[in-house]
Amino acid sequence: MSDREPGLDLRRLDAEAWHRLHAALDQALDAPRPERAALLDRLCGGDATLRAQVDALLRADAAAEAQGTGGWAPGPAPFSEEAEDEAAAERRVSELLGRALGPWRLVEAIGRGGMGAVYRAERVGGDFAQQVAVKVLRPGLAAGDLLARFRRERQILARLEHPHIARFVDGGMTEDGLWWFALEYVSGAPITDACERRALDLDATLALFLQACDAVQFAHRNLVVHRDLKPSNILVSDEGEVKLLDFGIAKLLEPGATADERTLLGAAAMTPQYAAPEQVRGEAPTTATDVYAVGLVLYELLTGERAYGRKIKTLEEARRAVLEEEPEAPSARVRRAGPGTRRAAWARRLRGDLDAITLTALRKEPERRFASVEAMTEDLRRHREGRPVRATGRPFGYVAGKFLRRNRIAVLAASLVVLALAGGLLATARERDRARLEARKATEIKDFVLGLFRVSDPGVSRARDVSARELLEQGATRVERDLASQPAVQAEMWDLLGSIYYDLGLFPRSQSMYEKAVAIRRRRATGADTLEAGSLSGLGQALLDQGKYADAERAFREALAIQQRHHGGTSQAVALVLGNLAVLESRAGADAPAESLYRAAIAIDSLTVGMNDPATATDLGNLSMFYAYRSRYADALPVASRALAIRERVLGRDAPEVAVSLDQVASALSGVGRVDSAITLRRRALSIRRAALPAGHPDLAHSLMNLAGSLTVAGRYAEADTLYRQALAIRLRVLDPKDPLLAQNHNDLGTALFFEGELDSAEVHDREALRIWDNVLPPDHRNVLTCRNNLAIILRSGGRYAESEAIFRDVLARRLARLGPDDPDVGHTEYHLGILLTLAGRARLAEPYLVDAVRIREAAFGAADPRATQARGALDKCRAALGAPPKR
Q1: Are 380 and 357 in contact (CB under 8 A)?
Q2: Beta-carbon neighbour count of residue 886 at 10 Å?
Q3: Which of 53, 116, 617, 652 has the fewest beta carbons closer than 10 A?
């Protein structure tokens, strides 16, 4: 095909003309040859110029194919126009299979359109296996304008590096004129199909949609409008990750784009059923065009149907629907579909915010849509967090309703007052109505308090006001007084209060509530049931977080026996208790039982909820911390990363559980020397918790501690000191004075003070940590030994060598007995003991300790690791003191 068919210059076409030509040509190339004439009669109508242009391009393509210069494979490709059909089109595509393009061999056709085909390809040779998707331009169309579009797609993809955009890998042209490029291969399904197959609930569906929006936002920030956003271009991988594809008709917004690029690439090329009004009118697309398209995708995800209720096949159908019809509200569409559909339960949640967000994105006038995809996703996130969304116009009643839903603990206080007043009315009821009124009262209190208390849970209401703790206490008083005659309901209330107190970090009060629930259930049950097991599990968690390990283990073991008796050994209820027991064993220093329990819980998770469920993420994350605490960072990092990916995908990037996973990944990164990356993740985790939790919440202290720990490793001691003190202030207010978390805080603050040269203050905090831990942990527990080792270092730095040496030797003996001779903790103590003996003028005794420290650290971390380098440096100084040259 020549660059210009006589009489046909694509560069002279205006946007509307180019749009019509593109749409007609694309459909004609996809159609069997015998059907093309009738199709073009319908598509072109009486437009003789358009028909001539399409015919010219089709003739040029056929000529190139007949000459062997434009077919799908090199060499002659004779054909009979009458016999050309779908099978022939498929044959053209299949003839390239097995061919190598650059380093890639085409192994499977995975997509075909009028402009080209896409193949799955494998790397030829090399030291590693790799799959890509290779897009090949149909050679008969490799003229200047269409080739420019193909090249532009390559350039756009090469500049868009984002986790939710299919990555550009390679590209080029073969000697016989095949233009191609390779992308990251995504094994998955269109986002609409993926949500249906996985039967995702509304929140999980929105989480996937927000991933797609993040990718579109990134493209916009890089001055690229996609212009062809539709479910088939938004894939969800087998791992549950969204990948945005196909920038073939994307438009550049940058000032440097040429006029020809703006005409060719900025014209209204599109997919009719996902076209925006301005595309249908042939106007230049903007970012508002992509806003409209993501609105169409959101509509389909929410309702299971297209916004205009049918498949639009032609430009004329698109013009009528998009310009003349108004989409029905998603909630109304779902209600009309009937109660038997999967989305029937969504109607209530769709009504209001989600209706408004979707229909705002689908407004006919670009200026009346969201200003950007980012503004749309901000409204979606506000909806998920219970905050007012901007798309509604925010009338007073709407905003007030949102305020009440976010501040339900305050509503609880007022409602309890009303209930207290109403309770007095029972005394005036006739005796014959008393039983009926009491039963009704119990039901009303149960339903009312369940709703109000549950939304005070941090996992549900992230912008709540929990500063008035006495409101919960008033609720507990009502449960104690008014539900005494309804023990089943009362036990349920105690469980609920126990979970809320636990989530607020008030562990002693949580323990008290769960103990009341257990007592009631034991009195009522003839044999232990699963409700009792649930209460015992909650009690065990409250005890565990107070460091009451023996009592916690008894509660967990009893709960486990009940669940196994009722559900067998492979239920999710059993996995939950096994995970709790694993955490307990880990904190108690029982490494082998802990790891075994973690793996047992994860094995059950895989059988029951699958490996992409938040419950599985919890167990994976806990296992990663088990590895990190034991310096098994290479094991910890992939496990923690998997847990993070699950939670971000299912719960959203701003969920409090994501903060937990971010800290877990950061712990592993710190261990492998990537401290700056760890600090970045910890700052994000802290930001999530500050947005989700009230000031003074214990989980904020946890994030402050984690960030301070990474800053300490990075040598930023003053910053760490400040954060440790903020965390300590929170914990002193809310925790029991004997809580092990306080000990950890004192120990870590002491470390920062030591590095700042504040030896006296460091010793005070270290000894306070030991005082607490000695009361709740055995003398050979990992935390106790670490703290004692730190104290010995502080004393050595203060010149108190005798006290320091005695502690080092005691710690070393205990670590050797507990961990064996090759553990990094053993090497750590030997390293510091060797330094002490060298400083004390006893280098001969120091040398074997330092030799062993070098051996352990090189084996555990590698010879190039700074810890190994430090040990070799200490050994060199020791040998220099002996008058001997360094050995290597």
Answers
A1: yes
A2: 12
A3: 652
pTM: 0.46
Residue 206 to residue 184: CA distance in whole angstroms: 25
Cα–Cα nearest to 659, from 382, 459, 375, 464? 459
What pLDDT score does 737 carry? 79
Tokens 């070098």: give the residue. Answer: 854
With tokens 């090189």, the residue in question is 858
Of 411, 426, 507, 512, nearest to 464 (Cα)?
411
Asked if pLDDT for residue 856 goes beyond 50, the answer is: yes
**Secondary structure class of 168 (helix, strand, coil):** strand
The residue type at 250: A
Asked if residue 392 lies in contact with residue 353, where contact means CB atoms within 8 angstroms, the answer is: yes
Task: Determine the Cα–Cα distance for residues 329 and 335; give it in Å rounded to an integer.
Answer: 10
Tokens 């490709």 belong to 77
Choose between 292 and 281: higher pLDDT: 292
DSSP 720-776: HHHHHHHHHHHHHHHS-TT-HHHHHHHHHHHHHHHHTT-HHHHHHHHHHHHHHHHHH
Helix (H, G, I), strand (E, B) or coil at 267: coil
Q: Report how far residue 368's alpha carbon sits from residue 362's, in angstroms, rounded to the nearest whole number.
A: 9
Q: Are 50 and 20 in contact (CB under 8 A)?
A: yes
Q: How confident is the model at residue 353 (pLDDT cuts 50, 70, 90)?
A: confident
Question: How many whole angstroms separate alpha carbon 165 and alpha carbon 377?
Answer: 17
Asked whether the predicted pLDDT for residue 794 surpasses 90, the reply is: yes
Other C-beta atoms closer than 10 Å to the C-beta of 93 total 20
Per residue in 422-477, pLDDT tens? 343 333 344 444 444 445 444 545 454 544 444 444 444 444 444 345 566 777 77
Dump the DSSP string for 76-130. -----TTT--HHHHHHHHHTTTT-EETTEEEEEEEEE-SSEEEEEEEE-SSSS--
Q: Which runs of E-coded beta strand occur in 296-388?
A: none
Residue type, 825: D
CA distance 549 to 480: 29
CA dihedral 215, 221, 225, 228 (to 10 degrees): 0
Q: Long-range contacts of range 806-810, CB-CB < 8 Å, 24 or more positions apart?
A: 808/832, 808/833, 808/836, 809/833
CA distance linking residue 827 with residue 106, whole number of Å: 53
For 145, the token pair is 């304008």
Contacts of 485 (CB under 8 A, 6+ apart): 438, 442
228 in active site: yes
Q: 493-515 in b/e burial notation, b at 16+ Cβ within 10 A?
A: bbbbbbbbbbbbbbbebbbbbbb
Using DSSP's 3-state secondary structure scheme, residue 289 falls into helix
| Catalytic residue, candidates 55, 145, 170, 228 | 228
| Token duo for residue 704 | 């402050």
Sheet holding 179-184, edge to edge: 100-101, 104-112, 116-123, 131-137, 179-184, 168-173
HSE-CB of 867 using CA atoms within 13 angstroms: 23
The fraction of the chain above a pLDDT of 90, given in percent, is: 19
Residue with tokens 């996973």: 661
pLDDT tens per residue, range 337-351: 766 677 877 888 888
Cα–Cα distance list, 101 to 145, 199, 332, 743, 875 (Å): 23, 39, 51, 63, 57
Q: What is the pLDDT of residue 11?
A: 43
In 3D space, the residue among 607, 405, 529, 824 whose CA is nearest the CA of residue 816 turns out to be 824
Q: How far apart are CA 403 and CA 421, in angstroms?
A: 25
pLDDT (tens digit, 9 = 90+) per residue, 698-744?
A: 788 889 999 999 998 888 888 888 899 998 888 888 777 777 778 88
pLDDT at 668 over 70: yes
